[in-house]
Design brief:
heterodimer; A: alpha/beta; seven-stranded mixed β-sheet; 7 strands; about 45% helix; B: mainly alpha; 2 domains
């Protein structure tokens, strides 16, 4: 079974080497593709030295853009399973086999942070946003989803092909719209509880104003995803 | 003919000339020019026959003809802005596809050139 782990990176020179090494250790059979989203630091060279295949973008596209590049690469090279892992080290690669195993019964597997395992916790408006997203998307897809913004995911061949063609670059589009898109395309979605690590670098945005703005964007993304035409 | 209408006429003529020149030099694509090419003659006609505006205001039920003119002007500008936003979104999507393609191609070139 050929597996590709995609790591979208934007200025992650302090963590990317460890992420790539962890993936090699826990998924020895997988190829690792780092999509360098026009980083201005040494992400590209460090990732290459760590043994990853690196595709570098010349303009910053955001996570959605970087991921579509990854899915296109996976589709062109005929990978059967694709794993998405953040470059900041918050996803624990030892959990990756759990996600890949779940692909046996689903096209899209989401590694969920609030599903019982681990102690990842957020509060206030940001938590409400996540709960709102989870409630609305669970209802729409008729699958219990508790962590829809998780960037720790795995896709089977059908979902990979779909995402290689249609994957929005808009903010939150990569998480929210991807789920709606997969559902509308008739794919099966499931979630697997995973343990998350604290970020090895960087800090989560926790400012109240930012969190409120985030809630607004979540609402907009939800409304748009419900009325948007999907190919 | 009062000065105001002369100003309108000169404005319309200048707009037409400017658009014509930009088109001639291939600096402006037709789809962006069409709207202005329609607006300019309309202004010229109104400048020549001001009573048309009064009649139109009467028909629509606007008390002051100038208000009708301003309202229509805002409407046209809104349309132009919307059109530009739309074109901008399309361009961004096209740019995105190109960046993705270039990234993938550069990777292939790197791999092929490696000894």
């Amino acid at each position: 079974m050929s597996v590709l782990a995609i790591v979208p990176c934007f200025n992650e020179q302090d963590s990317v080497a460890a992420v790539v090494a962890d993936l090699h250790r826990h998924l020895p059979e997988a190829d690792v593709l780092v999509v360098d989203d026009a980083s201005t630091d040494g992400t590209r060279d460090i990732a290459r030295l760590a043994g990853a295949t690196v595709v570098s973008l010349c303009v910053n596209l955001g996570v959605g853009g970087a991921m579509r590049v990854g899915y296109r690469y996976a589709d062109e090279h005929g990978y059967e399973q694709v794993l998405q892992v953040d470059g900041d080290g918050q996803h624990d690669s030892s959990q990756a086999p759990l996600l890949l195993d779940a692909l046996g019964g689903a096209d899209l597997v989401i590694g969920a942070r609030f599903a019982g395992t681990g102690d990842y916790d957020v509060r206030g408006p940001r938590r409400w946003s996540m709960q709102l997203l989870a409630a609305v998307l669970s209802r729409r897809t008729r699958v219990r989803l508790t962590d829809t913004t998780s960037g720790f995911r795995a896709t089977g061949p059908r979902a990979t092909r779909l995402f290689a063609r249609h994957y929005t670059a808009e903010y939150l589009g990569d998480t929210v719209e991807a789920i709606v898109l997969a559902h509308k395309a008739g794919l099966t979605i499931t979630q697997v509880p995973v343990v998350m690590r604290a970020r090895t670098t960087g800090r989560p945005s926790a400012h109240p104003v930012q969190a409120m703005l985030y809630l607004g964007r979540v609402a907009l993304a939800l409304v748009l995803s419900s009325v948007r035409k999907f190919p | 003919m009062t000065g105001v209408f002369l100003v309108g006429l000169i404005g319309a003529a200048t707009t037409l000339l400017l658009i014509g020149e930009l088109l001639r030099r291939r600096q402006l694509r037709e789809k962006y020019a069409v709207l202005w090419l329609l607006v300019a003659p309309a202004i010229a006609v109104l400048a020549l026959v001001p009573s048309l505006l009064d009649a139109a205001a009467d028909v629509v039920g606007v008390a002051d003809p100038v208000n009708l003119l301003l309202f229509l002007g805002v409407l046209v500008l809104l349309g132009v802005c919307l059109h530009l936003s739309w074109e901008c979104s399309r361009l961004e999507e096209e740019t995105r596809s190109l960046v993705e393609e270039v990234g993938l191609l550069r990777h292939r070139v790197d791999r092929l050139e490696r000894p």
